[in-house]
Design goal:
This is NAD(P)H-hydrate epimerase. It catalyses: (6R)-NADHX = (6S)-NADHX; (6R)-NADPHX = (6S)-NADPHX. Its cofactor is K(+). The protein is an alpha/beta fold. Helix content is 35%, strand content 23%. It has 8 helices and 12 strands. Helix 2 packs across helix 3 and helix 3 packs parallel to helix 4. The protein starts with a strand and ends with a strand.
Length: 240
């Protein structure tokens, strides 16, 4: 569970590059801190809030990296709570333990074709395609791009919850091409990424929800890429 509070006005907040965030995560991961499970718990809480206001089926778009693992573990929590959750794996590789947990909880794995055929039925879409991993080209391709373009073409779009940042948005400079799902809520982990407050970030991120994972002591060793005013909801994940 997580404890949440939302400020009423924008606050000047340091935002960091992807490299700085990964460096801050490293010592915690080496200590065995389950950052992914904590991130997923907070993500599931936010999606549950969305479902309370917009009840119906959930579609999870899961990529190959840790971002996809966050989304899949959150899908498992949502399914255990009674939500109807479908997941599309947009890459051949997958976080296997997270997928196993999701399937065991009752999440239904479906193809991109199946999801496209019923895309208008979903009330919430969880965008876990890409995270902050190093990529020379962040443009979506293949089934991921096809699904995103299908959602963008809908007259009435589902609520979009982005995992860490909208997929296709550069985490450092905020550049993005046309095939990016503008989020209603972005649940970002550990620190605000610079790309959320630069370039197209403010246009695509929606409401930003910052999950405290305990990175602050390590982020003090890095210089923020930028400090910018942003309205944040915040939560601290309680250790389970």
């Amino acid at each position: 569970m997580s404890e949440r509070a939302a400020p009423l006005a924008a606050e000047r907040t340091p935002a960091y590059t992807a490299d700085a965030v990964r460096a801050a995560e490293k010592p915690l991961l080496e200590q065995g801190v389950p950052l992914m499970r904590r991130a997923a718990a907070a993500l599931a809480d936010v999606v549950s809030d969305e479902l309370a206001a917009h009840p119906g089926p959930v579609l999870v778009l899961a990529g190959a990296g840790d971002n996809g693992g966050d989304a899949l573990y959150a899908a498992a929590e949502l399914a255990r709570a009674g939500a109807s959750v479908d997941v599309v794996l947009v890459r051949d590789r997958v976080h296997r333990a997270a997928l196993d947990a999701a399937v065991a909880a009752g999440v239904r794995e479906c193809s991109g074709t199946d999801a496209c055929a019923r895309i208008a039925d979903y009330r919430v879409v969880v965008d876990g395609i890409l995270g902050i991993g190093r990529l020379a080209d962040r443009r979506l391709r293949g089934s991921a791009r096809a699904l995103v373009e299908k959602i963008l073409a809908l007259d009435a779009r589902p609520r979009i919850v982005a995992v860490d940042l909208p997929s296709g948005l550069d985490p450092d400079d905020g550049t993005a091409d046309a095939a990016v799902l503008a989020a209603d809520v972005t649940v970002t982990f550990g620190a605000v990424k610079a790309g959320l407050v630069r370039g197209r970030g403010p246009e695509l991120a929606g409401s930003v929800h910052l999950v405290d994972l305990g990175l602050e002591p390590y982020l003090r060793l890095a210089h923020p890429a930028v400090t910018a005013p942003i309205v944040l909801a915040r939560s601290t994940v309680r250790v389970r």
